[in-house]
Write the structure tokens for this entry.
Amino acid sequence: MRKQKINYKKFPDKQGRFGKFGGRFVAETLMPLLLEVEEQYKKAKKSNDFKKKLEYYFTNYVGRPSPLYFAKRISKQLGDVKVYFKRDELNHTGAHKINNCVGQILLAMKMGKKRIVAETGAGQHGLATATVCALFDLKCIIYMGKLDIKRQAPNVFKMKLLGAEIVPVESGTATLKDAMNEALRDWVSNVDDTFYVIGTVAGPHPYPMMVRDFQSIIGIEAKKQILKVEKKLPNYLVACIGGGSNALGLFYPFLNDESVQIFGVEAGGEGTNTKKHAASLSKGKPGFLHGNYTYLLQDEHGQITDAHSISAGLDYPGIGPEHSWLKEQGRVKYFSATDREALEAFKLCSKLEGIIPALEPSHALAFLLKNAKKFKKNDLIIMNMCGRGDKDIFSISEHLDVKLNQK
Amino acid sequence: MENRIEKKFKELKSSNKKALITFITSGDPNYKTSQKIMQTLRLNNVDLIEIGIPFSDPMADGPTIQRSSQRAIKSGSKLESTFKLIQEFRVKEKKIPIILMGYFNPIFQYGLERFFKKCRIVGVDGIIVVDLPPEENDYILRFTKKFNIHNIRLLTPTTNKKRLKQILKYTNGFLYYISVMGITGTKKPSILEVEKSVKEIRKMSNLPICVGFGITNRNQIKNLNRFSDGCVVGSAIVKFIEEFCKGKVTEKKMLTSISDFLANLQK
């Protein structure tokens, strides 16, 4: 029997579900807040004034549209396919994260909130949040795992310069998931004046939808750009996946275009056959964390286990619920790339294209390199270059045994 | 069979008393000591015992209970051992109602029917699933009914009238009013604010209302019990366990401290 065609634009449903995934699984204290955010977001989405403001800051502050760049030498390396990079690494603050921050913080201001909290892993979301808070003169508190603070020193320094308060999180595994727990705890304790800016397409409804919508500017632009240059839709989309916001941002506007094949690349860490990886979709199973039902890395007793990746931005044991659904629908295929493969891709991209990518999109590129033989000549591929590597050079130099900062 | 929770509140009401509910995490710091603490609670005549199911990511809990949860997981506490703890406790103690409190994932992974059936078998009377709002109650409704486990819901200062109605639809046993905006064991409740809210809730429900979060001493309890049907003490007890874990006191001393603390609360 033929599967009924799904209109992907119609999700989530009223309960915030993507099929069986998503939803709103939070303590009662948070429920009224989430309902309020949802209501206000729906209003904002329809408001011309809000749209104009968003557009204004996208154009004049973030630097949108980001270019769609034909990566000629990488393409050749891959055997004469045509790889285009969607260059969201050129955004202000160096990654796609700021798209969502501008959106959510404009919403927070509309709601009269004066204090912003956020979690961060790699520091990119924290940096983007701190930046937009500085711009609008809002108090900014960033929760960051103690381990990540060490790994991402440059971003920590920048956030402080921007006036944000960094709260080190030592509970649990002291990484992104724990930072998210702490941010949620802060939010329930300060509901009156505070807005929680979640950085990825996870969390309770309406966050997965809201973050996706703000990030989908990536795919909307990419579609226009590719149609202009190539006069046709791409054959493939590729993006890395931690929580999955850059990926959904690119994928979402193409989901209903059946001819476009879509690949998400998770962090394979030291290998998905080891315990040290962050491949929730390939190796996890569905469960409940941070307010939604989704694939999670967990033990047989339902305790969430540590994720591992060389890239702090992918180091999350969950995944946005929409990805879980897209996986089960078979609309998006999910793979993984290891730390080592990502490092190789990182080096290659720097040399061949003069673009130093962040470790996150290096995973997407690693996937392409690994599967070069599977693509046909002139296949059209868009890869989301969702972040630049500046933040990673210190930790990468360590991996490559190069000492920076010698005195 | 009548649920122990209802029976307990009837008894309390007829003797004009208020409930003292205590919380500990199952397996914190280990199975054996948990069992001893349970006995201490029993010997000190607490009215209901709330047992926390440890979870790696206890989103609604403050640092004290987070650490408690982590210690318990480290000691190997699992749902299976939690059930065993209760089963052993029930050998001597048939009356005190036991409530399990936890996050949804460990319960869901155990299997919902299996979980609630086991609750019935070992003598659990009520359940609080912290991160399962009334909107998602369908997951467990069938089983709480089938196995006569009371579904106890949390009400908070952020709960408005509309939500209150919705919550009341799915609650039995008693109502658990969270006294502060926030997480367990951090802020101190404002008695006046709580009183106002509890009185509002009374207008809409005949269920007993107990107050929890941030309750640490006899004075608070006295004040709250003027208008509530009981109080929940959690972090304040778990702190004694923490002292023991830090090696500051012996196990025996910890148990005596908990005894003294409880006796004092009930004075």
Observations:
- The longest helix of chain B spans residues 251-265.
- Chain B has a mean pLDDT of 95.
